[in-house]
Write a structure and sequence with these properties.
9 helices, two-stranded antiparallel sheet, binds FE2/S2 (inorganic) cluster, binds iron/sulfur cluster, Ubiquitin-like (UB roll), single chain, alpha+beta, 2 domains, Fumarate Reductase Iron-sulfur Protein, Chain B, domain 2, 35% helix
């Protein structure tokens, strides 16, 4: 395949970026999207040009780092697929492919296609954990019964890989799908219920402080999420948030 790549190049977070055009040839349908970018970078290095910076780690759909906006869609055209699992057979000979970083105020561009998603880490740190003592006397997991439906739902929420596609897809750059998945994975389990009130208040407060927008029920996040996280999680978070706010005045949210 012969392709034209239109790629966002930006030196650092303070510089003004721009699209640059790169023709590329010899791309096979079985190559992954990232392998295609590897080939481009080899060519650029051989020509003494700066390679395109992009994030990747596992290349197995697990780590959530390979976040690219491809032809206007987070992770490209295939549903339930991360950029690293996207294959070039999804494109045709002669195509022009536009590749950009995820766009959101809370995800500033570090360089080229790499954005800073530490805002997600701070939301997690605000309450995305269970404070149990795991030193020494850990009880057997099966000692606490959990019904099958809740266990499955919790597992589905825990499938979120923190990629940020939901934010990139949303016209409001809302992080509610991500935050609600991280809250849901605990709120459905007995171990997570103990800290549920402070978890939802603190994580939502942090999400707002990071500058993410609000949800207006468009549903673009659910469509673009590579892990099938559903809007049900947002509804659950909103219910929990309302209940927690009635228990604990907002001005007094726990830290
Ligand atoms: S909810 Fe989906 S799109 Fe959003 S961060 Fe998690 S895996 Fe990525
Ligand atoms: S590189 Fe880890 S999910 Fe794509």
């Amino acid at each position: 395949m012969k392709l034209t790549l239109k790629i966002w190049r930006q030196k650092n977070k303070d510089s003004k970026g721009e699209f640059k055009v790169y023709p590329i040839d010899g791309i096979e349908g079985d190559m992954s999207f990232l392998e295609m970018l590897d080939i481009l970078n080899e060519q650029l290095i051989n020509n003494n040009e700066e390679p395109v910076h992009f994030d990747h780690d596992c290349r197995e759909g697990i780590c959530g780092t390979c976040s690219l906006q491809i032809n206007g869609q987070p992770h490209g055209p295939d549903r339930l697929t991360t950029t690293c699992h996207l294959h070039m057979r999804s494109f045709s000979d002669g195509d022009t492919i536009v590749i950009e970083p995820f766009r959101a105020t809370a995800f500033p561009v570090i360089r080229d296609l790499v954005v800073d998603r530490s805002s997600f880490e701070r939301i997690q740190q605000a309450g995305g954990y269970v404070s149990v003592n795991t030193s020494g006397n850990t009880i057997d997991a099966n000692a606490i019964p959990v019904n099958k439906h809740d266990a499955d739902e919790s597992f589905n929420s825990a499938a979120c890989i923190g990629c940020g596609a939901c934010v990139a897809a949303c016209k409001n750059a809302s992080a509610m799908l991500f935050t609600s998945a991280k809250i849901s994975q605990y709120s459905l389990l007995p171990q997570g219920k103990i800290e549920a009130t402070e978890r939802v208040l603190n994580m939502v407060r942090q999400m707002d402080e990071e500058g993410f927008g609000n949800c207006t029920n468009t549903g673009a996040c659910e469509i673009e999420c590579p892990k099938g996280i559903t809007l049900v999680n947002i509804a659950r978070m909103n219910r929990e948030y309302t209940a927690a706010s009635l228990k604990k005045p907002l001005s007094n949210s726990w830290s």
